[in-house]
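_Per-residue structure_
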Amino acid sequence: MASKYYVIWVGRKPGIYTSWDEAKQQVDKYPKAQYKSFKTKAEAQAAFSKGTSAAPNSKKPASTYSKKPASQSAKTHAETVSDSQYDVEIYTDGGCEPNPGKAGSGVAMYKNGVLTELWYGLYNSFGTNNSAELNALHQALLIAKQALANKQTVHIRSDSQYSINCITNWAYSWKQKGWKRKVAGDIKNLEVIQASHALYEELKDELKISHVAAHIGIEGNELADRMSIYAIDKKDTAFCRYPDPIDLASILSLRTG
């Protein structure tokens, strides 16, 4: 359990962090950053959900957070976080029950800040959380490639630091060593890592990939999470588009990972 929880309302990547070193990177020299530490996760989540009205010396709520109506139940409540610099935002998540065990992947896609598509699938009865996260990121890269070809700007948000590092960082060293680890030997999930890294290399100059804090009520992350568990329940090995119309409250009320 973390000794402290750091809430960042205004910074490079708003969210809840358990490491001050990581939190500091989001606020250091950031204009008018707003953040505060809390002793418990529950206090941090409650403060974050209130927007900057809960921040020190704050006079108004942050405009980047759009709250759902007060009548909506806590179970289905989520905050939207939009990056207006990008035409397309893609949230990814993977789930596994237990780990290792039954795994599935999910994606939520926004265009101009509006939820347009949900995807689920890639069920594996002998998967891991890491393999599910990597599969979701790979699918996001495939979607990004199509969007970039249509002259749209793209931001992918994954809650898996492992997946992001595999594709954007560690793969360079592994590739130089013949796709081997220096000490540990074989690389797990190598096939999807290689495919994803190749896509990343092709798209990286036009693409942004960043980490998003998990399970703190950010709508896109919550929806991708629901889709990953939905994939496990449906046992769909293909990657399937969730049918329209999208009933947001209904989907957010599905079980979580």
